Amino acid sequence: MIGGATASDIHTSLRIAPVYSAPVVYTIDASKSAWVTQCLVNKDPKFLADLAEHQESLRKAEAEKNIPEPKNTQKNTASLFDWSNEPIQAPSVSRIVLDDIDLNLLIPHIHWAMFLAAWKTKVGPEGDKLIADGKAMLARMVSEKLTVARAVVEFFPCNAIDNENVELYASHKAPNGCGCIECSLQSTILRKRQPKNQICTLHFPHTSAKGNSLAEYIAPADSHRTDYIGMFAGTTGIGLQTNIDKLRAEGDDYNALMLQLLADRLAEALSVYLQETYSPKGIRPAIGYAICPEHEQKSTLFNLLDVESSIGISLTESLMMTPVSSVCGYYFSRGEY
After folding, report:
1. Which of 159, 229, 244, 232 is nearest to 197 (CA)?
2. What percent of the chain shows pLDDT beyond 90?
3. How far is it, in rounded angstroms, from Cα 118 to Cα 135?
4. Checking phi first, is residue 156 left (phi over 0); if not, alpha (psi -120 to 50) or beta?
5. What is the pLDDT of residue 126?
6. What span, in angstroms and rounded, lies between the C-alpha atoms of 259 and 138?
7. Do the beta carbons of residue 91 and residue 155 sit within 8 Å?
8. Taking the complete model, does pTM exceed 0.85, yes or no?
9. For residue 282, which phi and psi values (nearest 5 degrees)?
10. 3-state secondary structure string, the chain?
11. Cα–Cα distance between 123 and 274 in angstroms, integer?
């Protein structure tokens, strides 16, 4: 079974299930885990047949999406911005690593509607009770330190080299070596005398025939203006599993599930908090979701930010993040949801 905030049905069907001999199931709701486990252990023929048919239909649909478009329906290449006048705002920091973030800073950013959706419940008496129980558990998470939040954020100079690819450059340090954005900007003359030090290229495909690529939100190289892209990784799950296991051992499955779902929501709240605190206003696409579907980019991000040694998040062979209540993605200084 596969689940978690950064997993998806489509990624499981396309990238994981085909390379395993046994069935692989994506579960969006932790409350279904027991039923799915029973079906797998009992080798339920209808369940397995429906699963295989469902995953094959997703693979066929994805294959059809990758058929090249006729020339007369190619994507519009008109620029989204007037790059001669579009403001480019340098971020306030170049890199920051945060350890043991106060959960009280994240709680105001929790999306309670998504919390209820995880319980398959809407606003109403039942939803109100779940939120009340959730707030009580949040108080315990803070007072008893049931989990620890950590994050790393780094911004890179960059330019779009076409409408689907962004080239990242190494940050230039000032002579004093502090590496902050302010000092980097003071070394403008030095940068102009030296060629840009490209470190990697990020591929952002158009997600639909009419959709825009994320590369179109970055100043193109021919604008002769350096833009910036932020990368982030964060977790609200350090030490969490031990406390979930403890609750389950005590027979308290309800609060064990409550704790896990709240940690997931806090992880998303963490990405919002980091953006509001350190990034210019814009979009924050998470890797693996519709607008940024290539999970392989996690490997690039983890290498560039040195995520595992910096904050303790690791990637599995199938590019899942552990702890489960973790997020990673990008910060753009323009665009809106």
Report:
1. 159
2. 58
3. 16
4. beta
5. 93
6. 8
7. yes
8. no
9. 175, -155
10. CECCCCCCHHHHHHHHHHHCCCCCCECCCHHHHHHHHHHHHCCCHHHHHHHHHHHHHHHHHHHHHCCCCCHHHCCCCCCCCCCCCCCCCCCCCCEEEECCCCHHHCHHHCCHHHHHHHCCCCCCHHHHHHHHHHHHHHHHHHHCCCCEEEEEEEEEEEEEEECCEEEEECCCCCCCCCCCHHHHHHCHHHHHHCCCCEEEEEECCCCCCCCCCHHHHCCEHHHCCCEEEEEEEEEEEECHHHHHHHHHHCCCHHHHHHHHHHHHHHHHHHHHHHHHHHCCCCCCCECCECCECCCCHHHHHHHHHCHHHHHCCEECCCCCEECCCEEEEEECCCCCC
11. 28
> Residue 173 has what pLDDT?
41
CA nearest 173: which of 157, 159, 152?
A: 157
Judge whether residue 191 has pLDDT over 70: no
Amino acid at site 209: A
Which amino acid is located at 248 in the chain? R
